[in-house]
Predict the structure.
Amino acid sequence: MTIHTEIPQVAGQKPATVHPLWLRLAHWLNALAVLIMVTSGWQIYNASPLFDFDFPSTVTLGGWLGGAIQWHFAGMWLFGFNGLFYLLMNILTGRMKRKFWPLTPRGIFNDLRAALRGKLQHNDLRHYNMVQRAAYVFVMFDGIVLVLSGLVVWKSVQFPLLRELMGGYDTARYVHFLAMASLVGFVVLHLIMVALVPKTLIAMIRGR
């Protein structure tokens, strides 16, 4: 089980940095991009539903199909470039290996069991437990799937190989929808965890 104890602070010394500035900027830009893309995407979905339901207009962005597409494209560029910046910075700074590895099924199971029993500690925010690592790695992979399936839905003719790998245009639409649903699910769980451990929000704003 991954439990970290809080490191005592020396008098007169600033608290250790939990999140560097570049990470905090990428986080909040990504939050904005996701909000724009999801709500405008729901409006686009309503124009040609995949399933037997629509999203209420009160939670959609754009007002109509054309407006929603414009918002979606605006959010798309922000999401894509910000996501690329986030991945590159994680790799170049060594944060990817330092924060998200090692990652093992047994470790995930043990930490998940501890979390469900209310025994998983969050004293040192600089370290991620196995459940957090798995969730963040998953959402990074999910973001890549969102971008690739979105390219097929947007420019199917221009990306024939990608379209075939996705199983065709219609299948790509389902892949894109399910990836979106997974992202929304992650956001909901993320917000619940922030509510349970409020100091994580402070660290993402102030860096400490």
Remarks:
- The chain has two domains: 18-101, 131-207.
